[in-house]
Structure formats: C-alpha cells, structure tokens
Amino acid sequence: MKPPAPPQKPPSRGGDRAGIGMTSARTRERLVQRLRDQGIMNPAVLDQIRNVPRHLFVDEALATRAYEDTALPIGHGQTISQPFVVARMTEAMIEAGTPGKVLEIGTGCGYQTAVMSPLVRFIYSIERIGALQERARQRLRELNISNVHLRHGDGFQGWSGHAPYDAILMAAAPLAIPEVLFGQLAPGGRLIAPVGPEGRQQLVRITRRGDEFHKETLGLVSFVPLLKGLN
Fold first, then answer.
1. Among the options 12, 24, 81, 222, which is catalytic?
2. Which of 2, 33, 221, 229 could form a Cys-Cys staple with 98, CB 3.0–4.6 A?
3. Is 81 a catalytic residue?
C-alpha cells in the first residue's frame, strides 16, 4: 500500500455542485466540522465529504437534507449511509496507506463509492439490486469517476475474478462475514464491515496477517442487512 493520494475534486457543473443553500460551501463545511468533532481526522477523507455532491445521490425531494449527518432512504428498502459512517469506514480502510484494489459490497446509490474513489486505485463494486446499480453508474459517470467497475451480483459470493483485494468494504450487514471473503482478502489487507442483527451491529476491521485474521471493533452502527440473491 502507498500513502493516500490527494483527493480529486469533482468537476464543476454550475449549481449542481457549488450553488447556494443546500449545496453551499458553508453547508458542507458545517458537516465536515461535525465529523471532525466526532473524531474523523484524515484530511483526505474530510475533503471528500466536503467535495462529493451528496445531494446528487438522493431523491430530489430529500435533497435539502443531503448534508445532514443522517442516513436517508434511496428506494428499494435501502439507504444512503450516514456521512460519519462513510467517513469512518473510509478512514479505517486507508489508515495503512492507499489500497490498490478494493472490493465494495453494496454499491447502493454510489455515494460511498464516490467518496473513496480518489483514495484508492481501483474499486470493484457489487450491487444485488439492478435498478440501484444503474442509477449509481449514471451518477459516477456524471462525476467523471473512471476507476470503478460495477457488477450486478450477490455480495455473499464476493468477486473472485479480481481477487485478492487490498481492502474489502461492506455496506450492508451480515450476521457473520461470509467465509469466501476471507479468501479474497490479500495478505496485509483490511476488511471493514458492519456485523450483527438489526439494532445490535458492530463495525469491525479485520486485518489479514498471513493466514491469521485480526479483528478490531470500531463502534456501533446501523445498516440494512446483507441479503442473498439478485433483484
């Protein structure tokens, strides 16, 4: 792994990204300051929270709430994760340096993908709900994010064709991490995941050292469950 690269700023496209009100610099800076107060310290991660236009990843009716530190519905029984959790998971993933290849399980609307895209070399992202995957593809294309490969697939299977991965990030919560994912994690790699039943989930980081896997608990979280099959 290399030291984290400086984040790429999304290209300007008028009011969509740098306008007034919900997209103003002041509104975004308040969110960044809140995350800083909660312990997010990595400047590259904070820059991404500041620069990625979260309002583009939620329904227009919820756009005025896009820069609140809260999860929001995105349809199909799924949510866009709370910015603090996105920042915490990203920070935990890159703490040891820039991962070359990252497997993301649960693309959702693509917000987490967009936040971490300039901080890693390549992202291989799986989403089981086809409509969400297509929406994420469109948003990432609009933002000129080109180092992400998307797949409509079952996250329980991982993506063996591009393994091993320097990092695996799960954006949905299994009761237990699927065994197949441990085999797709490179030596020295990190797996970041919410684990447990609804209401009692722990965010964990698992680091592979040879054939051993070392677990750290990073705090309580609330995610939608990881489900099998395609939709």
1. 81
2. 2
3. yes
